[in-house]
Structures are given as C-alpha cells and as structure tokens.
Amino acid sequence: MDIFSEFVISKSDRVYNKLREHFPLVEPLTNSQAARVYVDRQGFYFRAGYVFLMANMFGIDDNQALLPATAAQLCNEWLLVHDDIADDSRLRRGGPTLHKLYGLGLAMNAGDYMQNEVWGMLSDYVRDYGLKTGLRLYKKFYDIIKVTLEGQSLDIEFAQITKDPARASEEQYYLIAQKKSAYFSSYGPLQVGAVVADRSQETLNILEEIGRPAGIAAQIQNDVLDFNTKNVEKVAHQDLYEGKLTLILLHAFRNSSAEEKSRIKEIQSKNIATKTEDDINFLCDIADKYQSIEYAQNKSAEFGFKAVNALEAYENSFPDSHLANVFKTAVRRTYEHYERPKTKERRA
User: Fold this and answer.
1) What is the pLDDT of residues 105-144, one digit of tens each?
2) CA distance from start to end of the chain
3) Where are the beta strands (DSSP E) in 15-140?
4) Strand partners, 96
5) Which CATH architecture fits 3-333?
6) Does residue 67 contact residue 128 with C-beta atoms inside 8 Å?
7) Domain limits of the chain?
C-alpha cells in the first residue's frame, strides 16, 4: 500500500463518523436512513484525503479541515445516487443501487437530501471558522458542482442521445473527463484544502495545472479498470452496457473495418436492457484486436507525465515536508497503477 493510501485511511474514520452524525438510522424509512446505505458502504475517501492533504501541508489541523473534507466526500455520495439513476445502474460498492432498493422517488429524494447536508456542513464551517474563508469555500464547492454537472450532461448526451462513435472525438472525451472527473475528483478537492489554508488564487491555479492532467489520467485508468475486471463497485463492463464514451471505444471504432463499425453502431444504439453478452464480447474482442486498451493506457501515461512535470516545476510552491512525498505519490498513482485500496473492511 502506498503512502497516499495510508494517509487517506488514517483520516477515513473521522470522515465516516461525521457522515453518520448527519445521517442517523431512524425508523420508519426516511431520507436519512436511505442515504446511510451508501454512507455505510464507505467508499475510499480519496477526495476527502486530498482536502486533508493540502490543508495539513499548509499547517491546518484535521479539526479545521474535517467539515470541508466530509462535504467533499458527501458530494461524491449524492452524485453517485443520481448518476446511478441516470444510468439505471444495478450495483454500487458491492450492493444494489439506491433506486433498485427503494424505487426512483425515494432514491432521488435521498440524493437531494444528501446534497442539502453538504451546504449545511459548509454553513457550520462558517459558524466555526469565519465568513471570509467560508464564502471562498461556498464559491469553490458551487463551481466544482456546476462544472461536474456540465460534464455529466455531456456524458449523458452521448450515452443516451448521440450514441454514435463516429460523431465523437478524443477531444470530446477529454472534455468530459476534465469536467466530470478531473475537477471533482482531483484538483477541486486539492483546491478546497488550499482554501481552508487561506492560500492565494495563484496556489489554486498551480493545483489545477497539476491536477487537471492527473484527473484525466485517472479517468482513463478507471475506464480500463471497468473494461478489464469485475470489481466490487460495478458489474463487469458496466460502461459498455451503459454506452459510455470511453477512449477505448473511440480507438477501437476508429480502427475498425466498415462492417465492424456497423456492428459497433448497432450495439451502441441499444439500451442497457437489450444489450446481450454477445454484444459486449464483440466490443471486447474489437478492443483486443486493435490494442485499444494499450492505447488508452499510453494516453493515461502521457497525461500522468504532464501532471508529474507540473508538480516538479512548482515543487518550491509547497512546504518541504513528508507530506510533499505523499502529494507526489497521490499524483503518480493516478496513472502508474490505478487500483482502489482496501482498509480494515472494504472501501470501494
């Protein structure tokens, strides 16, 4: 286990306990109890870890960073609830998705309830630590969520409306990865930690320059992970079933014969309920035939190298401490070996 994973795990119990405070188990079934389903499955809290990492690096203790870090994690929870509804996903972190358990109405409402608690946590932060930094946090969270929803909209547009790989491009894929994933999962949480530490906009810009390519690299690796393995969080090849735009699919389509392109378009035009195992096996075989996974991995490495080069260029902008090595490890792990680590139980 790398030192960044160890750092995240060392903070995770505090985040989980704070989440439980906000979502007590009460009878009968309520928004709070429904929300606890995802909370209790405990994802790997690397977004919260980024917040703690940057705040700690600039001298802020865990107490002051806890509410923003927990809010960052809670954003992930409610976005997953809504994302699973949009994609009609069946599994999340080893169990049924919320709308499969309780129906669309309660699942959507529970996701909204979770989002509302994010703003409540930030309000508590203003109460405890002051209006100046609190307003900066509000604006940063607002911008992160706004951009993420824009990326989600682009993702849904392709998967549910466009569907045709001939009408997509790598540039479109990278835009979705940047908006939907890189900001929300990489440089956004780092910037939140820097805001907690009252760092300047210049520091936030540096973190974006480092985190944007790192986040894109991580998204590509996540696509590869989905393509290659069955994991506890999702069914095997969930992106293929849902018709997501991935770099693997684009590369395979671009290199396919006319007959193969026609079959790929036919499969993409189907909805998740009508795609067959033979359809998915065909897409996998095409990706193997044209070495599309290897292509995606190489692209991930290119973005990863950009992130590392940016980090090295701005190394003097960060305090020289053991946390600097944790930060370097966090950047490198996005593309060198993307694998969700496990804690004492299981965090996906």
Assistant:
1) 999 999 999 999 999 999 999 999 999 999 999 999 999 9
2) 15
3) 91-92, 95-96
4) 91
5) Orthogonal Bundle (1.10)
6) yes
7) 3-333
